[in-house]
Amino acid sequence: MMWVKELRQLVVQGGFLDGLEVSFQSGLNCIIGPRGTGKSSILNLIRFALGDWPGQPREFVGKMNGLLGDGQVEVEFVTEVDNIRRIKRRIGRYPRLYDDKGQLVQDGREMRFNLEAYHQGQLELLLDQGGTALMDMLDRTIEDLEPLLRDLEANIAKRTHLQRDYETEAEKLNELKEQVERKDLLLKELAALQLNEPEKRKQALVQEAALFEFWEKLFSSRVKTLHNMLKADYHTCRMENAMLLNPDLVESFIVQVNQTLEVRQQLADELIKVMEEGLAAIKELGADLAKRHQNQEEQIMEDLRQQGFAGCTELAQRRQNLMRELAELTGCEEEYQKTVTRIRHLTERKQILLVEAERLENSIFRLRQSTVNRLNAVLAGNPWIHINKHSDIDEYRRFLQQRLQGTVSRRMIDDLARRLDGRTLMNIVNKADSELLSRTLQCGTNEARQIIWVLGQRMDSGRMTEIPVGDEAALYYRNKSGVESVNSYHLSRGTQCSLLLPIVLLARKPVLIGDQFEDHLDNACIYDMVIPRLLNIKKTRQVILVTHNPNIVVGGQADWVIAMTLEGGNGRLKQQGRLDEESIRWEVMSTLEGGKEAFCCRVEYLGVG
Hints:
Elements: E1 2-13, E2 21-23, E3 28-32, H1 39-50, H2 57-68, E4 72-79, E5 84-90, E6 96-99, E7 104-107, E8 113-114, E9 116-118, H3 122-129, H4 131-139, H5 145-192, H6 197-230, H7 247-307, H8 309-328, H9 332-379, E10 384-392, H10 394-404, H11 410-419, H12 422-431, H13 434-441, H14 445-457, E11 470-479, E12 482-485, H15 493-504, E13 512-515, H16 523-537, E14 543-546, H17 550-555, E15 560-567, E16 570-577, H18 582-592, H19 596-606
Parallel strand pairs: 1-8, 3-14, 3-15, 9-13, 13-14
Antiparallel strand pairs: 1-2, 1-4, 4-5, 5-6, 6-7, 10-11, 11-12, 15-16
Helix pairs in contact: 1-2, 5-8, 5-9, 6-7, 7-8, 10-11, 13-14
């Protein structure tokens, strides 16, 4: 975001202010004129061009559409590094930024520029919105605060993302836990599922037949292999027509080889004979077993028919279904452990971010407190600003009410929100420390356990640690009775604004734009509290004000006056210039004082001058 150090010019093409070209100078610029001449429209067009839109952008763009139509607004300004830039913008199109030579610098939606603008009635809205809005306004006075706020916002975004992942994994963990428990039940049911006696005998027949079949095939394979390996013909070792240097040793070698081959053949014949005899015996036993199995199976089938074969079939089907369901649950224990590990890692990462967030929040509060102390010294105690740490708990309280409604009383929920922040409460829930919660809330142990149980059962309870609990600022004023807090119930609207406006006028970096924010103030307050600060800040900061009060223009010693008028249903620039110019003084007198005759009449009647 780029800071706007000073506005130079506004040019409008089309719409209510078609053809308007307004210049601005350093110091105090005052825009005057009758109502309906486009004074506020000038400020709104500046905000539209520079992207400083109010909290309801759709309504603001709708207002700009009625004001500008198909036209274009162009604003020339000076950046904080003294670069001259010119921005052009139309309704429904992205802005285009040019340098002082007319070269395009940037084009796109991401352009935003920092200036401080208050539309008509915004001070009253700030008061109605409470201490958080006032704290946001004070934050604009702290130059080193924005990086910390960005880091804290990024930290919250990361924690929110981790919380979503945690809830997804926790939901998956519950499903896996149900699967593991289901598998244990199935195994127990399968173990308890007993076959009747005929069915067991039938199973034994199958096992016996399988046993004989296995060994018969094995022996047949081995006999065949022995035939191929050992029954092959062999040749006697001989040495004919050869020249020998050691004939005696060679002859002994040949004799030994032939003897070994003969023994090998004898052993092979005996081994094959033994294997063939064993295989024949196995086949004979297998044939006897097959005849016996045939008779036994007929008897078993008769027993099954007598005992109810349909029941046995259902029992076997049940076993089959159990086995199929168990197969579908294969690996659920391993996945359960992996999910537990992922949840632990997510929790650890979030805990690290929570520690970092606490460090950032403490740094932010220290900056805010030091700024408030400095402002109180500058304001000389009237108004007096007080900052309350982590006092904006409305959203946090609503979160607890939604989850604990019907569990404990609303009063106890309010105490819970005031006494324990989200991080501390979540730690208590995770540790199931009902004793600590009971002591903190000064409630019974059963109520504390109920709170812990309800929050512990919800996977989204961890979201309470991501709910922003911000600091709030409060204004006080000093009167004869002491210190009294500024609020709409005790003070008039004018008194409230008289305390808030001096804070707005404190020196800051960007341009200050104000639209008749002195409406609720009487002239004495303006002269005592506003004019001295205007005279001070205009030395270092450009101020552009729309006003109907002559004290702002004359008492503030305006450096530039812009007078607007209405011609042909459109707003027009009547004239602009310095206050020491005769025509400008006459315009101020006629517009703000009702003319020379009215001004002289009041002077004569009041006996002054």
